[in-house]
Specification:
The chain is mostly helical. It contains 12 helices and no strands.
Length: 359
């Protein structure tokens, strides 16, 4: 029997141990990755609520900055006017319009089922309408309802989200430098100027988005209130308010807000419904493509196709809150990519090109 080579046996044992260690390392990495993805999926809604709180805080500070520029008063006084004035204005609006809106909401809830029945009768008179009704009458309607419910669901419920967002906004508004300096402390010393620049640019872009969005909501509400009132459309004030609020959701919100207005116009006549639909389209087009870009002054320049893709993705991940915050979140991502990647590559090219041109 030949003698056993101890060195050879030890090498085999070491190889087996090394292979087992690599397998366990791979399993650990995959498990860590899966856990990280699951945590990120759960925490993503929390991050969106933080972003919503930041937006409210940006609004208060932006309004305070404007008051300070106009009056030259102290910062604390301007912020008190900004926050207190906003809540007082909202309270006055709800007090003046509350009873009228509540009456119109009651009328709308009573009228809408009858309006939908009339719309079905009118759609049955055309071949295209019959096809649409057949599609909705099948199992597709259940699928659409299930999709809509999941699409507009949130992690903690609407009221819970609003409660958390308001508290975050209060904390961010009361002492913004505390959180800003805390983020900058996480950055290496050599990158702190870049961190200040990125945060300032993000703040500037979010202020621009808020200015354009708020003015768009007010203008849409005023113009639609006047237009629907002239056309003698029932519950015109509620329809205009709903359209103004849904302006928070670009593209899809305008389409969703037009549906009840056109349905109610059908109770009067088909021509009235066509005129109301054209009114919605014209007002939304003017506000979205002319007024809003002028106010934002190219503070935030995002391609429309990219906006729609971001909304679809965010809606799938986080429901209605994701759709509302898709544009500001996309703006933040684009700024980060531009500051941390594009400008860095450009600077490298500027340094390298002259060296290549030397003889």
């Amino acid at each position: 029997m030949p003698p056993i080579d101890d060195k050879y046996t030890n090498k085999l044992i070491q190889k087996e141990l090394t292979y087992i260690q690599k397998v366990w390392h791979t399993v650990a990495i995959v498990a860590l990755l899966v856990v990280t993805i699951l945590i990120a999926r759960v925490a993503f809604n929390v991050l969106l609520m933080v972003l919503a709180g930041v937006l409210i805080s940006v609004y208060f500070h932006g309004l305070g900055d404007m008051i300070q520029r106009k009056t030259q008063w102290r910062r604390r006084v301007c912020m008190i006017i900004s926050i207190g004035g906003t809540f007082v204005l909202l309270g006055v609006l709800f007090w003046f319009m509350g009873s009228k809106i509540s009456n119109q909401v009651a009328v709308l809830s009573d009228t809408l089922p009858h309006t939908i029945s009339n719309a079905k009768v009118k759609m049955n008179e055309t071949p295209i309408g019959r096809k649409i009704l057949e599609y909705l009458a099948d199992d597709n309607s259940d699928a659409l309802m299930t999709t809509a419910k999941s699409f507009f669901s949130t992690s903690f419920g609407v009221l819970g989200n609003i409660y958390i967002i308001l508290f975050l906004a209060i904390f961010f508004t009361s002492n913004p430098n505390l959180y800003k300096d805390g983020m900058i402390k996480l950055v290496p010393e050599t990158r702190k100027p870049l961190a200040h620049q990125v945060i300032d640019r993000i703040s500037f872009a979010l202020k621009g988005w808020l200015k354009g969005m708020m003015l768009s909501m007010v203008l849409v509400f005023i113009l639609l209130s006047i237009g629907l009132g002239i056309m003698s459309i029932p519950v015109a004030l509620v329809l205009a308010l709903l359209t103004g609020l849904l302006k928070l959701i670009p593209n899809f919100g305008s389409l969703a807000a037009m549906i009840p207005g056109v349905l109610l116009a059908l109770t009067i006549s088909t021509n009235t419904a066509i005129i109301v639909a054209l009114m919605y389209i014209v007002i939304q087009t003017i506000v979205s493509n002319i007024v809003t870009p002028i106010i934002q002054n190219k503070m935030i320049n995002i391609p429309p196709a990219l906006t729609i893709l971001a909304q679809v993705l965010m809606g799938t991940l986080s429901g209605v809150l994701g759709i509302i915050l898709a544009v500001p979140l996309l703006a933040i991502v684009m700024i980060l990519v531009d500051e941390l990647y594009v400008k860095k590559i450009t600077d490298i090219d500027i340094v390298i090109v002259p060296e290549r041109s030397q003889p």
